[in-house]
Every structure is written in structure tokens, then in C-alpha cells.
Amino acid sequence: MLELRLVQGSLLKKVLESIKDLVTDANFDCSATGFSLQAMDSSHVALVALLLRSEGFEHFRCDRNMSMGMNLNNMSKMLKCAGNDDIITVKADDGGDTVTFMFESPNQDKISDFEMKLMDIDTEHLGIPESEYEAIVKMPSQEFARICKDLSTIGDTVVISVTKEGVKFSTKGDIGSANIVCRQNTSVDKPEEATIIEMQEPVSLTFALRYMNSFTKATPLSNSVTISMSSDLPVVVEYKIADMGYIRFYLAPKIEEEEGES
């Protein structure tokens, strides 16, 4: 038996909005520690890892480890029926083939039940090694989203370069080129508006902007985003989810020689 009650139901809605365009079908794994998902996008270029820790739920019951295969688009349609202030409860029986979403309005005068069929999805669970990153940039998530959106009007790829001075986002396209530099800035009044750079050594990597723009759909979940880079590892773009977990996007850098071909 599985029963999860989330008072901030809007969090689940935002999580789905941020991943449903990247991943079509995925298994949600539930264990005593929390509710998680790990899935590749259809072209096997990007990976999404989501964790909502059990302590973040008002009520969390998961009698045994369970994996629920869901079509994320259908799940998103159901969650759209929940009001932003609604409390969302997710229920499923062991071995059942459906999952139920229950939405309660804050003053309890309206309760909706939506049942969705589960799917059998074969996915291998990828071990994501914990890595030490050469450069970690924490910056306002809206700023990062704006930069990715602006640069994609000019080019298809973004070069992210981290130095002591700051983080530079550059692109080149048919109409010209663009460079945007965000300097380290920790003296702001609000900590979420700070740009903080921790760097062992300078890193410069190239990524497809199409994916970066897809990742920034998670912007409503968090005021800040953390970008972790190392020269021989996929970048990790992480958004914290309240105080209960995170959503992380992994994307392999483009190799320079390929750029003429792609």
C-alpha cells in the first residue's frame, strides 16, 4: 500500500510541468526514504533525477518498495485539475494497475478523485556516481532561464565558461554572436539573488541550448539553480524543491569536432 499526502500540491504540478516535455514515460520509485524518478529523454542525451524525501510529505506510507510506470503527459493532465492550493494525495495498492490522485481544497469543501492506469515500463536504473566537480555555479534561476532563452535566438549551442571572474555564456550563429557574463556577486540583500562560484580550476564546455531551455522549465520550483561542471563529466543543472528534495538534469557536453556535423 502506498499513500503520500503533499500539502503543497502545487509542487507536484510544477515538477511534472518541468519534466513532461523531456521524458514521456517513466517509473516513479517509492521507498521508505521517498518518492523518486530517474529517466532518460527519448533521444538518450539527457537524464532527469527527481527526489522528494519522505519527511517533506505530511503523510507518507510506503509498505514496500514500489515502482509505478506513468505516462507523464497523462499525469500532468490529471494534476492540472488540482487547484494550486490543493492538498494532493497519491494512493496505489501493491500490485495494482492504477494510481489514484486525490485533490482536496484547503477548506475541505471540495474533494476530487482521479484514477490513472499504470504502465509497464522497462528501464534500467542508471547508477549516477557522486562526483567532485571542478566548478560549481549557483545563480538566480530566472537569470539562467533568461540567458538560455536569449542565446537560443542566436545560436544552437552555448559555451559555458567558468573562471574566477565569473561565468560566461556564449553562442555563435548565422546572425552573429553573443556573450553574457555573470560576475560573482554575494553581497546582495537577498541570498537567492546571489551568484556564487566555487572553482577548483577553470572549465569551459559546450551544450545544446535546446536541452538547457528544456531544463529551465523547472525554474518555478526554486529561486536559484546550481550548475556543476567538470571537463569530462555531464553537467548537472539542479533545482532544489522546497526543503524536501531536488530535480537534477544531466547533460553530456558536445565535443567540439562534432559541431560541423550536427
Automatic annotation (TrEMBL):
Function in brief: This protein is an auxiliary protein of DNA polymerase delta and is involved in the control of eukaryotic DNA replication by increasing the polymerase's processivity during elongation of the leading strand.
Protein name per its UniProtKB record: DNA sliding clamp PCNA
Cell location: Nucleus
Family (UniProt): Belongs to the PCNA family.
One matching Pfam family: PCNA_N
GO molecular function, a single term: DNA binding
All copies of domain Proliferating cell nuclear antigen PCNA C-terminal, residue ranges: 127-254
UniProt record, GO biological process: leading strand elongation; mismatch repair; regulation of DNA replication; translesion synthesis
Source species: Taxus chinensis (Chinese yew)
Annotated keywords: DNA replication, DNA-binding, Nucleus
Domain Proliferating cell nuclear antigen PCNA N-terminal: 1-124
NCBIfam families hit by this protein: pcna (TIGR00590)
